[in-house]
Write a structure and sequence with these properties.
This protein is about 60% helix and about 5% strand. The termini are far apart. A three-stranded antiparallel beta sheet has the order 2-1-3, covered by helices on one side. The chain has two domains: about 1-175, no CATH class; about 175-275, no CATH class. It has helices spanning about 5-20, 25-40, 45-65, 80-120, 135-175, 195-200, 210-215, 260-275, and strands at about 180-185, 205, 240-245. The protein has about 280 residues and is mainly alpha-helical. The chain has eight helices and three strands.
């Protein structure tokens, strides 16, 4: 039966404690065994890919197939979501690939940190070994990066889920004709490690550059500017902010309407009231 990662580290530390750094070959031997054991302790790439895909597909179904995305797009028609569905599906495939690459990179880094820690410690032990090695502390330090990996991978899945939700929403906003976005921060959520500048953006409205209402002279950006003047929701690591997208002139703050926009809105209300 194959040795576990913990068993290999224990054997490696014991061997170096006894013999010390007496040859490059000894260090290389244990580095090879530790690498193989570390890789064997992880889920296979296929298992991790399936886990990742399941998580993102679940979000896609909730947001797109069950129309959960509508909550961030009041006023948009369901027909528009159907029109944009191919782009939303493409975003799912793109996010799966990006997330898989990130997890692969994190795994590689975790293994390299493990090898670096062992190499740094083992080459410090003199030839002939040492009786002063605090083996439990050494083993704990060597194992640290790999033991944190499942936690880090869960964090990646959560963060990539937020990024995916945000990118789905932005894709729908772009193709659906949104004219502005109202920033929503979760700074009131207990234990949420929010960014102070994101809290300051809460409820502020940013214009979508080049939107139809700007081109027709019906609106203007507020003093806060455009959505592309700032980072996007979920763009920064572990950000849970989002936009509530605006599609109609009547939902804009009054200071973002031009005189022409106020006039057109007034005319539309008169028509609605007359009907």
């Amino acid at each position: 039966m194959a040795e576990t990662f913990s068993q290999v580290v224990t054997e490696a530390v014991a061997d170096i404690e006894e013999h010390g750094y007496d040859s490059e070959e000894r260090i290389a031997f244990w580095l090879g065994k530790i690498r193989a054991a570390a890789e064997g302790a992880m889920l296979t790439p296929e298992q991790m890919q399936a886990k990742l895909r399941d998580a993102l597909v679940s979000i896609y179904r909730q947001m797109v197939e069950k129309k959960g995305i509508v909550s961030m797009h009041p006023g948009i028609g369901r027909f528009t979501i159907e029109q944009v569905r191919p782009q939303l599906r493409a975003e799912l495939d793109r996010r799966i690939m990006a997330s898989a690459n990130l997890i692969k990179l994190n795994r590689k880094q975790a293994i390299e940190k493990t090898l670096q820690r062992f190499s740094g410690w083992s080459t410090s032990i003199p030839k002939g070994g040492s009786k002063n090695v605090k083996t439990n502390d050494v083993k704990k330090d060597i194992r640290k990066a790999l033991q944190r990996l499942p936690f880090e991978e869960r964090r990646v899945l959560v963060d990539q889920g937020h990024k995916f939700t945000s990118s789905l929403s932005e894709t729908l906003a772009q193709d659906g004709g949104a004219i502005a976005g109202a920033w929503h921060s979760n700074w009131r959520q207990p234990n949420y490690d929010y960014r102070e500048d994101h809290k300051e953006r809460d409820r502020l409205v940013y214009a979508v550059r080049g939107c139809w209402a700007l081109e027709r002279g019906l609106m203007k950006p507020s003093k806060h500017g455009y959505t592309d003047d700032i980072t996007k929701p979920a763009e920064e690591p572990f950000c849970r902010c989002k936009y509530r997208w605006i599609y109609n002139l009547r939902d804009l703050p009054r200071d973002m309407l031009t005189a022409k926009g106020r006039d057109e809105l007034s005319k539309a209300r008169k028509v609605t009231n007359a009907a």
